[in-house]
Amino acid sequence: MRNVVSFVLGGGRGTRLYPLTKYRAKPAVPLAGKYRLIDIPLSNCLNSGINRIYVLTQFLSVSLHRHIRQTYQFDHFSGGFVELLAAQQTMDEGTDWYQGTADAVRKNVRYLQQPGVDYVLILSGDQLYRMDYRELLQTHLDTKADVTIGGFPVSSSAASGLGIMRTDATGRVTGFVEKPKTEELLQTVRLEPEWFQSRGMTPDGRDCLANMGIYLFNRDLLVDLMVNTGYEDFGKEIFPKSINTRHVHVHMFDGYWEDIGTIKAFYDSNLSLVRSDSLFQLNCPEAPIFSRARYLPPSQIDNATIRSSFIADGCQIGEGAVIENSIIGLRSMIGPRVTVRNSILMGADFYERTADLEQDRIAGNPAIGIGAGSVIEGAILDKNCRIGRNVRIVNERQIENSDGDNEICMIRDGIPMVLKDAALPDGWTLQT
User: Fold this and answer.
1) 346, 378, 355: which is closest to 24 by C-alpha?
2) Per the omega criterion (within 30 degrees of 0), is the bond before 19 cis?
3) Is residue 100 pLDDT above 80, yes or no?
4) Please, what sign has the CA dihedral across residues 91, 97, 100, 105?
């Protein structure tokens, strides 16, 4: 895999993940209590033998840059790197921001033209899955394709939110429909059960093939597309146009895959991980998920009740606390008799010093963490939140969306979200 270079696309504003993207780039959003979204594609690359990786971003990239710098370091003999390519002004490519996924690669095309690069792997920075890209490359070589794309089987009911491909019997892509919403369009891209069975897969009611946003290009073809066309997006322009003029082949993937592009998808995907029968297991010795090494103490739990949950490093959980089906992030301070159900707590970036805690007490401000007697259900709490005593964060009125106090708490997709660094005083109750 030394002749493969990977580009991970993470430059979008991440508006559908707001407010988690209010202070950070989308790939830097925390995942499962101790990882970040960017760790998924980077770990897949490293586990597949790909160690020359560029991450393209332009919005709020400071925390992402810090995470990559502190996590992905290689020795001098491996030749590996994970390099952040943020949008910047140059003499050659102009002064514009990245206008799309393809435009981001175009503005960095010189990194494709380096010696020893034969294939370019294009990945998304906001998906949860585990894939061996060596198998993708083998499909590419066996079929003599110009472009190979990851394909994921879905049912017709899920097809309306995805790009759906049509293929021939060999797996060559012959058509593409973006988010088909009518029966007529669906009929043009449906596949027979025999198509899946011939590839050793059980259809299980799935009759469509979704574009995963994973592309493997022959390097020379991609450089030609970047230099000689003005296409700005891979999924909407380059991929559909290439179908008619190039050999585009599908690589089938039938494992767990989730596009974490919305708050609801983020919430559901995270909480699905805590189940013992989760389709995506974090503890996979054959293909581990890498992240930043932190030197934190073990979590301390004092006579609490914990069911089906993740507890990250460095936490303190008080007596009588109840935690069910939840994720408790790094350095979380949870007071006595706190109830946390079906929620994601991202924890804290630091521990408060004794002097700071004393100042909080004198000023009547809550410390970082969750105060005694508070109840949190079906919510997401971003980092460094200060939750007072007897606070109640429960969407009892079943509100779907509300800005509320958009500096403290809002509701997205029915999920209450407490923003990063927000403070809720004693007795605060969700009203919006």
Assistant:
1) 346
2) yes
3) no
4) positive
Helices (H), 253-369: 263-272, 354-363
Query: SS3 of 317, please?
Result: strand
Number of helices and strands in the chain (H, E): 11, 31
- 424 DSSP β-pair partners: 387
Rounded CA-CA distance 412/58 in Å is 25
> For the segment 149-172, what is each residue's pLDDT rounded down to a tens digit?
999 999 988 888 889 999 998 999
Rounded Cα distance between 6 and 248, Å, is 19
| Residue/partner pairs of 349-354 with CB below 8 Å, 24 or more apart | 349/383, 349/384, 350/384, 351/314
Q: Contact 394/380 with Cβ under 8 angstroms? A: no
> Which of 268, 332, 269, 287 lies closest to 306, judged by CA?
332
Would you list the DSSP string of 333-363?
EE-TT-EEES-EE---SSPPPHHHHHHHHHH
Over range 191-197, report the average pLDDT. Answer: 89
Here the tokens at position 157 are 């009911």
Asked whether the predicted pLDDT for residue 92 surpasses 80, the reply is: no
The larger pLDDT score, comparing residue 137 to residue 360, is at 137
Instruction: Give the Cα-Cα-Cα angle 252, 255, 260 (nearest 5 degrees).
Output: 105
Q: How far is CA 271 from CA 42, 123, 279, 364, in A?
A: 22, 24, 12, 34
Q: Could you tell me the CA-to-CA distances from 226 to 113, 117, 233 in Å, in that order?
A: 11, 16, 11
The DSSP call for residue 237 is I
Mark 65-88 as b/e (b = at least 16 C-beta within 10 Å): eebbeebbeeeeeeebebebbbbe
- Residues of the chain with pLDDT > 90: what percent? 63
The residues near 76 (Cβ < 8 Å, ≥ 6 apart) are none
Alpha-carbon torsion angle 206, 273, 419, 355, nearest 10: -170
Instruction: Report residue 82's pLDDT band, with 50, 70 and 90 as the boundaries.
Output: very high
Distance of alpha carbon 103 from its chain centroid, rounded? Answer: 21
Distance between CA 131 and CA 255 in Å, rounded?
Answer: 8
Report pLDDT for 227: 87
Distance separating alpha carbons of residues 140 and 135, to the nearest angstrom? 9
Bridge partners (DSSP) of residue 52 are 81
Query: Residue 56: beta bridge partners?
Result: 9, 85
What is the mean predicted confidence (pLDDT) over 127-139?
A: 97
Nearest to 29 by CA among 44, 12, 5, 46: 12
Confidence (pLDDT) at 88: 56
